[in-house]
Amino acid sequence: MDSALLSPAGAAADFSNKADPMVPRPFRIVRRLREVDGCFTLVLESLDGRPYVFRPGQFNMLYVFGVGEVAISVSGDCRDPNRLVHTVREVGTVTRAMAALRPGDSIGVRGPFGHPWPIEEAYGHDVLFVTGTIGLAPLRPLIMEVLNRREHFGKVVLCYGSRGTHDILYEKQLHQWRGRFDMQVHVTVHSAPSGYRGRVGSVANLVKIARFDPEQTTAYVCRSETMTRPAVQALYERGVTADRIYVTLERNMKCGVGFCGHCQMGGSFMCKDGPVYRYDTIEHVFSVREL
Amino acid sequence: MERTAPTTGHPTIPDPVVLDRDGLDALIDALRGDGYTVIGPRLRDGAIVLDPVESADDLPWGWIDEQDGGRYRLMPGDGNAAFAHTVGPQSWKRHLYPPRQTLWTGRRDGRGFTVDTPTDPAPRQAFLGVRACDLAAMAVQDRVFGVTPHDGRSAGQERFTDTGYAARRAAAFIVAVNCGRAGRTCFCDSVGTGPKAAGGYDLALTELPGAELPGRGAPAFLAAAGSAAGAALLARLPGRPAGAEDRAAAEAAVEGARAQMGRAMVSDAGPLLARNLEHPRWAEVAARCLNCANCTMVCPTCFCTTVEDSTDLSGDHVERWRRWDSCFTVDFSYIHGGAIRQSGLSRYRQWMTHKLSSWWEQFGTSGCTGCGRCITWCPVGIDITEEARAIKDSEGRG
Q1: What mean pLDDT is predicted for residues B11-38?
Q2: Does domain A25-113 bear CATH number 2.40.30.10?
Q3: Which residues are registered as beta bridge partners of B241?
């Protein structure tokens, strides 16, 4: 232990931070959209008049009064500080209670937290998004921002997979993106009814057929931990190197500011250092069980 | 925030003085007079705990402890010393980062709600008898809670400060005690944190030898100031100027403790554990570990917490509480679908690698200060120094 650590007693001088990161800000639900089965989108407006500024890839702790709090990525446009958008899947107590809220109800917001997707690092490159099912929700702000800055990138490619034809998230938006001349959109489903004319198979297969220059590509992968590995493997096979691949990971995010310890993975607090990581910085942890 | 502390602006540190038992009493009186709650070592429930003390009479005069893996016993010492005991089950974190704290309260308001945060000022606490290992632990937690800067991995990112911790820390007056005796689970010397307090205190006391020898000398304490506030307080106390022999006796006492260290941590434990995440030793220690979480509760640097939301019967009033948590519980790593760390092995590994290895990455320091509490209070006597050494020795054989 270095001696510089031992600073004089009462070392705190000015700790009057900004707003207390542990205290939720009240927001009002202004719209509620039904998404695919089990998913819904909330559009929120701040009740304290302060704008909400975030960067793509960041998340909030959303609080349902009297029920509890849960970490949810922001899914809206980072250029609109007056409308906070979250797409949520009902999986637990808090998200089920959240599903019952209606426009006019309030919700608590702490955030934004976490390390965002890097964007400038991909300038001059082709950009490849690899995601599936609800993974498109945390990726959408990034896709929107890349399209906002379209002139800085080469090809822009989205590879998206879902389980079936019934759970393709943001289907309307996928059609809009596909309609653009400056974006490739590949969609695949794992199983489909007979007569389905789209692509059937894994997202990794989409990576194999997508057109991009592997040596000049930055890939953003937003999948579950188990599905990240085959996606990265497919990228490796195309020749994209680990230092050009960004992935997200998931742990138990609780406080959002690195105090509670729950989201640690090795030396990383996922709520501060993640959830977005450059793959080469965390590749080793994928090989250790239960880290 | 600047690293410079507000208390370092004084031109000179006055010379140490020697206090007798009345002087120690006067110290406690003066602190109480200044509005501090003085918290120090007291006998309770068969242990020496950190409770409020009202006078020097409340200190555990004449008691020492015997500690070893899974063992803690109090016994009369050979004399009448106030601080011949070593660290007990509690550390100062319970007074700087209490086990349960209200974060905020909420009230339903139509279809919305309002949130209130507690506005109580930080309590004025004076800590009497802070050992070097525990001072180091405070410095570690200062980094964890964003009070002092560090060069850990999150240094370049947005830094949050826990305002409650920072306020309690800033309000605290610290009277350190240099150890004149070490226990069998002590290993501060090997991790460079003790047994002498290197800084971070307002006053430091060294109990002069003699007091613990029957029939020889009355209690006497060499008192040195470490801050302007400490110097100002010292000037108000009845003491005699310390002579060269007093200083030499104090040094000798500390060196005596250094020579008594019951255990030692291997060097470079951080990189050692980082490259041995799949070592067979983890399974061996996991077979002994009860996953009881004692080590995390007694550790002076363990900081993990969880929150509890409670609602009254009407459903209109809620409170969010933060309470200490432990990485030894299965729930700790729960995400939808199950816990990440299902096995006891992975949970023990998380604790020990965090303490000795990934702490460096996060905060630029070890999370272990060599206090030995985790060894003493482990019901099955698992010894963090022994576990680290076992892995190191296996490499040597490798």
Answers
A1: 92
A2: yes
A3: B17
All residues of chain A having their beta carbon less than 8 Å from the beta carbon of residue B200 are 6-9, 11
Q: How many CB pairs under 8 A join A and B?
A: 212
Which pLDDT band, with edges at 50, 70 and 90, does A283 fall under? Answer: confident
Q: In whole angstroms, give the CA distance from residue A191 to residue A168.
A: 12
End-to-end Cα separation, chain A, in angstroms: 26
The answer to whether A273 contacts B136, with C-beta atoms less than 8 Å apart, is no
Q: For every residue of chain A, which 3-state class applies, written as one string? A: CCHHHCCCCCCCCCCCCCCCCCCCEEEEEEEEEECCCCEEEEEEEECCCCCCCCCCCCEEEEEECCCEEEEEECCCCCCCCCCEEEEEECCCHHHHHHHCCCCCCEEEEEEEECECCCCHHHCCCEEEEEEEHHHHHHHHHHHHHHHHCHHHCCCEEEEEEECCCCCCCCHHHHHHHHHCCCCEEEEEECCCCCCCCCEECCHHHHHHHCCCCHHHEEEEEECCHHHHHHHHHHHHHHCCCHHHEEEECCCCCCCCCCCCCCCEECCEEHHHHCEEEEHHHHHHHHHCCCC
What does the pLDDT look like over A84-110, one tens digit per residue?
Answer: 999 999 999 999 999 999 999 999 999
Domain boundaries, chain A: 25-113, 120-248
Contacts of A30 in chain B (CB under 8 A): none
Interchain CB contact of B329 with A (< 8 Å)? no
Strand extents, DSSP E, chain B: 17-20, 37-44, 47-52, 63-68, 71-76, 100-109, 112-116, 125-130, 173-178, 203-207, 220-225, 240-241, 305-311, 317-324, 334-335, 338-339
Residue B6 in this model has a pLDDT that exceeds 60: no
Determine the pLDDT at residue B92. Answer: 98
Of B2, B103, B160, nearest to A258 by CB-CB distance is B160
Q: Alpha-carbon distance B38 to B342, whole Å?
A: 43
Tokens of B92: 């100062």
Taking the model in full, what pTM does it have? 0.90
Q: Which of A68, A108, A260 sits opposite B304 (nearest CB)?
A: A260
Write the CB contacts of A202 (distance below 8 Å, at least 6 apart in sequence): A161, A188, A190, A230
A120-248 has the same fold as A25-113: no
Of B7, B140, B358, the CB nearest to A9: B7
Cβ-based contacts of B166 with chain A (< 8 Å): 12, 15
Is the interface score ipTM higher than 0.95?
A: no
Distance CA B176, CA B188 (A): 15
Give the Cα separation of B41 and B47 in Å (integer). Answer: 10
The shortest C-alpha distance from B48 to chain A (Å) reads 24
B1 CB near a chain A CB, below 8 Å? yes
In sign, the C-alpha dihedral spanning A271, A272, A273, A276 is positive
CB of B101 within 8 Å of a chain A CB? The answer is: no
Q: Taking Cα atoms as reference points, which of B57, B55, B52 lies closest to residue B27?
A: B55
State the smallest CA–CA distance between residue B274 and chain A in angstroms. Answer: 9
CATH class for the domain made up of A120-248: alpha beta
Tell me the C-alpha distance between A252 and A261, whole Å: 9
How large a percentage of chain A has pLDDT more than 70? 93
Taking the CA of residue B307 and the nearest CA in chain A, the distance in Å comes to: 8
Which of A8, A106, A258 is closest, CB to CB, to B111?
A: A106
Residue B210 backbone zone (phi > 0: left; psi -120 to 50: alpha; other: beta): left
Which residue in B31, B391, B379, B10 sits closest to B205, CA to CA? B31
CA distance to partner chain A, nearest, from residue B217 (Å): 32
